[in-house]
Amino acid sequence: SAVISQKPSRDICQRGTSLTIQCQVDSQVTMMFWYRQQPGQSLTLIATANQGSEATYESGFVIDKFPISRPNLTFSTLTVSNMSPEDSSIYLCSVKQGMNTEAFFGQGTRLTVV
Amino acid sequence: SQQGEEDPQALSIQEGENATMNCSYKTSINNLQWYRQNSGRGLVHLILIRSNEREKHSGRLRVTLDTSKKSSSLLITASRAADTASYFCATANFGNEKLTFGTGTRLTIIP
């Protein structure tokens, strides 16, 4: 399984600011995804990070609010822009190395917006 | 939106007993995966079962899949205090590698 390093592990941010979360994998992976887990809830997919092109967003998520980069096969960033308290969640990076295979997750970033 | 439901939502058992969690989903799937999450941290992958499989084992874990009923179960045998966590099922559809998560089961093992 891939080793996934996600930074920061947690942060407390002021409303109106932005936070960039990094996801680094120790090996090349085919697919990378970003999920959100709101307090006490399950996980919801934000977007698929595409290498060298724009991310593919799920319904309810837009690029202006959650810009994503994926410059290569081992690294991706998610930015949470113009934050409000409703953005307080755990954000998780996930990777897959092939079709119909396991998806592995980073340790998550616990974001609190005040 | 969630693909499926898990039940029970919460489960408390004595250490040493077996714990069973169920997951139901709505559409045809390529595979179903189970995860554990401790105290709001990252997800630990437990087991993947593909649509052409009916049962898989890994240590104290046993997973079944019934595609006709669109349901899966996770059995943890001889539970330990360290098994206390939230457990999630997640499904992947054919031709789509994105995961859709169930609502989760909060498992508490009482020492």
Q: Can you describe this structure?
A:
The complex is a heterodimer of chains A (114) and B (111). Chain A is mainly β and 114 residues long. Helix content of chain A is 0%, strand content 51%. Chain A has strands at 4-7, 10-13, 19-25, 31-37, 43-49, 56-57, 68-72, 75-80, 89-96, 103-105, 109-113. The model of chain A has no long low-confidence stretch (mean pLDDT 95). Chain B has 111 residues and is mainly β. Helix content of chain B is 0%, strand content 56%. In chain B, strands 2, 4, 5, 9, 10 and 11 form a six-stranded mixed β-sheet that branches. In chain B, a hairpin with a 4-residue loop joins β7 (61-66) and β8 (71-76). The interface between A and B is medium-sized, with 26 and 24 residues.
Mean pLDDT of chain A: 95
Determine the fraction of residues in helical runs of chain A and give it as a percent range: under 10%
The amount of helix of chain B comes to under 10%
SSE string of chain B, helices as H and strands as E: EEEEEEEEEEE
**Poorly predicted ranges of chain A (pLDDT <50, ≥5 residues)?**
none
Structural class of chain A: mainly beta
Give start-end ranges of low-pLDDT stretches of chain B.
none
- The shape of chain A is globular
Please count the beta strands of chain A (DSSP E, at least 2 residues each).
11
Multimeric state? heterodimer
Number of helices of chain B: 0
Radius of gyration of chain B: 13 Å
Amount of beta strand of chain A: over 45%
**Main sheet overview of chain A:** 7 strands, mixed
Distance between the termini of chain A: 36 Å
Structural class call of chain B reads: mainly beta
Portion in beta strands of chain B: over 45%
| Sheet of most strands of chain B | 6 strands, mixed
Shape of chain B: globular
Most extensive protein-chain contact, per-chain counts = A-B, 26 and 24 residues
Summed over residues and divided by their number, the pLDDT of chain B gives a mean of 93
